[in-house]
Design a protein that fits this description.
Layout: E1 3-5, H1 11-18, E2 23-28, H2 42-58, E3 64-66, H3 90-106, E4 111-116, H4 122-136, E5 140-143, H5 145-148, H6 150-156, E6 164-166, H7 169-178, E7 220-221, H8 228-249
Parallel strand pairs: 1-3, 2-3, 2-4, 4-5
Antiparallel strand pairs: 6-7
Helix pairs in contact: 2-8, 3-4, 7-8
């Protein structure tokens, strides 16, 4: 039982897996609107699928535990213009992660990889990682699928920075590959391509562009360029990058 889902095990089974010093995968997503064409569960769904597939593919190499997905968190107020967001205060979200990780650490677990698929969480997760290091001397790895495989993903996407931010070419391609039945293809539109990506300082300076570019559909990017084939290539690139990282991280 070296590639296991936490919630499916008894406490006796968990006790045995914990003795093997597994890497704990913590999928972290959000429930919020994703344009006209994607379900509100998109972020949480992608985090869980990536973590679960990683556990399956790496289970013969190392012990891995996947905890239940952290499916709710913090989103900026702009996203609440549309129905769908189950929002936590930033402080509540951080406290939730701190308590979950502290609980796991107290059980004897030491290796953690957070898999975050929601952009608003990045800074908060980095703070939580620092707090866990201060409190427990345990060092969490905060990872983002679109970053860990950035070069490969950029070579696959056609629309560049203007096409992918939220429910755009990247996320829609993944969803077309992993769960095509959840995508409303008739509602794809490039109405809200990310115009701010033309700014010369984009990517060099952090600015919350959600409020600076008003979206009509709730999308920020161009999902019309998405395809299931791109999604397959992106997903495989993400898995390959994570597999390489886990092989390294599991030994540190």
């Amino acid at each position: 039982m070296v590639g296991s889902r936490w919630g499916e095990l008894t406490w006796q089974e968990l006790e045995q897996v914990i003795k093997k010093s597994p890497v704990v995968l913590v999928p972290v997503g959000q429930i919020e609107q994703h344009g006209w064409h994607l379900p509100v569960e998109t972020d949480a769904f992608l985090a869980e699928v990536i973590a679960t597939k990683l556990a399956e593919t790496m289970s013969q190499e190392m012990p891995i535990l996947v905890i239940p997905t952290i499916w709710t968190g913090y989103s900026t107020a702009e996203v609440t213009r549309w129905p769908g967001c189950l929002n936590l205060r930033l402080e509540t979200f951080m406290a939730l992660l701190e308590d979950v990780c502290s609980s796991l650490i107290k059980m004897g677990l030491k290796k953690f990889v957070l898999i975050s698929t929601h952009g608003n969480h990045t800074g908060a997760l980095e703070v939580v990682a620092r707090k866990m290091a201060d409190l427990h001397k345990i060092y969490l790895a905060v990872t983002i699928p679109s970053v860990i495989a950035k070069k490969e993903i950029e070579s696959i996407l056609e629309k560049g920075k203007m096409g992918s931010c939220h429910a755009g070419e990247y996320e829609t391609s993944l969803m077309l590959y992993l769960a095509e039945d959840k995508v409303k293809k008739e509602s794809l539109t490039n109405e809200d391509i990310l115009r701010w990506a033309d700014w010369p300082f984009y990517g060099q300076v952090f600015v919350s562009t959600w409020g600076m570019q008003k979206s009509l559909t709730g999308t920020y990017g161009d999902p019309t360029a998405a395809t299931a084939e791109k999604g397959r290539r992106i997903f495989e690139s993400i898995l390959k990058a994570y597999q390489a990282f886990l092989r390294d991280w599991g030994q540190r």
